[in-house]
């Protein structure tokens, strides 16, 4: 890998791992096609104790966003309150009162999925489509994330790279997670990763941010997947992957003068569903205690018509 030639490395990886046409010219799901009915039955069979974990960060003003590209933390506003009800200003009969609220936020400000319309490669969207005809001011007209809403539920696998490879359960910022690290972690956990799995990679960065403050969590240096892991993402035929970091891949990126090159291969070329800013801490602690790293996972995006990303509250059940 020539660190001074991101363009060449991206082009080579895109050509080697491209899934265009694999599921037909009209495909809207990408690697979610690997997550079929059999895989969901396999995931459901993993429920033994019935204990569940939310893998979502909070959606509030105390989040990590600092305004980069207009990404801000959620703004929560009450429309009706108990005070209004007590004062009798709501106009309802026979003493009934209520509360209503509204939230304003970017769809990728906290725990979220990147949709297939989120990233392009030289003007091409997923499946080789013209990006200008896919995502317009009206939204994603072809691969809007609403199409994925019924399907993101199945066998989840945690790869706690922070504990297996890192020191004190965490990887340092700038640590590039390679295929070898992912494989070694799976071996240490005694868990297999394969077709249709939803893989969760814990680096420990979120735990550090909560301990030390957000700092540059949103967009700054971070552990994450190495660009060289693109082959593993393709060959394992996983349905989706999520991390506890803002950017999924290692930051700073491994090339000079590059920005998120693994995204450029994974989303528009592999067709991979990518999740970011997931809270894997409680789940990881339970996995250590019970020694099992596979579980039922449901993580449906909100069916926001034409959206290129979505908030999500993933639920793991063991």
TrEMBL record:
InterPro entries: KFase/CYL, KFase_sf. One of its GO terms (molecular function) is hydrolase activity. Its EC number is 3.5.-.-. Pfam families: Cyclase. Keywords: Hydrolase. The keyword Phosphoprotein does not apply. This is Cyclase family protein.
């Amino acid at each position: 890998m020539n660190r001074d030639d991101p363009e060449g490395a991206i082009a080579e990886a895109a050509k080697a791992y491209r899934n265009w046409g694999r599921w037909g010219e009209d495909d809207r799901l990408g690697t979610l096609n690997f997550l079929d009915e059999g895989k969901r039955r396999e995931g459901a069979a993993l429920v033994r104790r019935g204990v569940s974990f939310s893998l979502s960060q909070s959606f509030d003003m105390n989040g990590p966003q600092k305004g980069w590209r207009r990404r801000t933390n959620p703004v929560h506003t009450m429309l009706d309150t108990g005070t209004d009800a007590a004062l009798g200003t709501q106009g309802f009969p026979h003493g009934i009162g209520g509360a209503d609220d509204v939230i304003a936020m970017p769809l990728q400000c906290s725990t979220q999925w990147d949709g297939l319309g989120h990233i392009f490669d030289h003007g091409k969207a997923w499946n080789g489509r013209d990006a200008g005809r896919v995502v317009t001011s009206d939204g994603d007209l072809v691969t809007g994330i609403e199409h994925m809403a019924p399907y993101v539920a199945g066998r989840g696998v945690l790869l706690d790279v922070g504990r297996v490879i890192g020191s004190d359960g965490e990887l340092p910022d700038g640590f590039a997670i390679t295929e070898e690290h992912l494989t070694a972690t799976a071996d240490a956990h005694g868990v297999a990763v394969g077709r249709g799995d939803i893989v969760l990679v814990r680096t420990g960065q979120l735990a550090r941010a909560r301990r030390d403050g957000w700092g540059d969590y949103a967009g700054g240096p971070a552990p994450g997947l190495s660009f060289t892991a693109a082959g593993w993402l393709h060959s394992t035929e996983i349905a989706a992957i999520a991390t506890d970091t803002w950017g999924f891949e290692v930051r700073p990126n491994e090339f000079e003068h590059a920005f998120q090159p693994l995204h450029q291969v994974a989303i528009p070329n592999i067709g991979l569903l990518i999740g970011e800013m997931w809270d894997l801490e409680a789940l990881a602690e339970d996995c250590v205690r019970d020694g099992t790293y596979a579980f039922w996972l449901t993580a449906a995006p909100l069916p926001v018509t034409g959206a290129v990303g979505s908030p999500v509250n993933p639920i793991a059940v063991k």
